[in-house]
Design brief:
The protein is of the alpha+beta class. The chain is built from 7 helices and 8 strands; from the N terminus they run ααβββββββαααβαα. It has 3 domains: about 90 residues, no CATH class; about 110 residues, 2-Layer Sandwich (Tetrahydropterin Synthase, Chain A); about 35 residues. The strands form 3 sheets. It has a 3-stranded antiparallel β-sheet with strand order 3-2-5, with no helix packed on it. Strands 6-7-8 form a 3-stranded antiparallel β-sheet. The protein has a two-stranded antiparallel ribbon with strand order 1-4. α4 crosses α5 and α6 packs across α7.
Length: about 280
């Protein structure tokens, strides 16, 4: 509650007490003390009737005659009995929302999967009597506000990432710069609605094309290893008395022969290549 509101409240209490007791003459000191006690008790009663506490970081939604009148708080909020009511509160604290931007490409037409952690909040300027667009945002639920932030960040991320090449986004400093630009651009879209992006953390990007190639190469190597192990096991079943060194050498020769790189049998281990 603001200072001038407290002063007005105290003045109203004193004025009401004087108005009710004005026909009585202040003849004795005891009556004056009684009047002071009555004014004090009347002020306390009026305080409990008209004041409502609102904890930080919440803000109270004050309705007047069934219509949103203002956003007030934190602290004590003045309510006119029978005329005003607090229908709820909104959380002004920060919210963390992870966003994965779909269908995004760099300037060199490379597809990129972008994972962003967006910290957003309702603008601290949302208080008092508010315009119609901010009123709609305040009356919406938390999910609707989160969706509005997500849409704005995705739109600006697509436009800004499109100005970078895939290679230039490799360093962390470049991603931090792009994240700052995305946040500033998103705030321009969100400002009329009373929302604010505090920061965006870019967790990194993976390039689907390069990732697919790497996974394919890894799968090919794993297949080759599995095939080699399977060949050694088959040979060992047929030749159980052959040492493991000779089995490995024979498997390697079979693999080279299959690839067209081997023409002769390998020498037996320990014989120095002699027949």
């Amino acid at each position: 509650m603001r200072t001038y509101q407290i002063l007005v409240f105290v003045a109203a209490c004193v004025g009401a007490a004087i108005f009710f007791f004005r026909p009585v003459k202040f003849q004795t000191l005891g009556f004056a003390l009684l009047l002071a006690v009555l004014i004090f008790l009347f002020s306390i009663l009026l305080w409990f009737i008209t004041m409502r506490p609102v904890d930080d970081p919440d803000r109270a939604l004050v309705f007047r005659l069934a219509r949103l009148d203002r956003v007030d708080g934190p602290g004590y909020v003045f309510i006119m009995p029978g005329y005003d009511r607090i229908a709820g509160t909104i959380d002004m604290g920060p919210h963390l929302h992870p966003i994965e931007v779909p269908q995004i490409r760099t300037a060199d037409s490379q597809p990129i999967r972008t994972n962003l952690e967006v910290t957003w909040r309702i603008s601290p300027n949302v208080r008092g009597h508010i315009p119609e667009r901010i009123r709609a945002m305040v009356l919406a639920d938390e999910k609707a506000r989160q969706s509005l932030v997500e849409e704005s960040v995705i739109v600006m991320a697509r436009q800004i990432v499109n100005t970078y090449t895939a290679e230039s986004l490799g360093p962390a400093s470049a991603r931090e710069e792009a994240s700052l630009t995305i946040a500033q651009a998103a705030n321009e879209l969100l400002e009329p609605s009373g929302l604010f992006v505090e920061r965006i953390f870019w967790r990194g990007s993976s390039y689907p094309a390069k990732l697919s190639v790497a996974k394919l190469e890894g799968a090919i190597r794993q297949t080759e290893v599995d095939t080699l192990i399977e060949s050694v096991e088959k040979i060992k079943k047929r030749l159980p008395d052959v040492p493991a060194e000779e089995l490995l050498a024979l498997a390697a020769w079979l693999d080279m022969y299959r690839r067209g790189g081997g023409v002769g049998m390998p020498p037996a281990p320990g014989k120095g290549g002699e027949d």
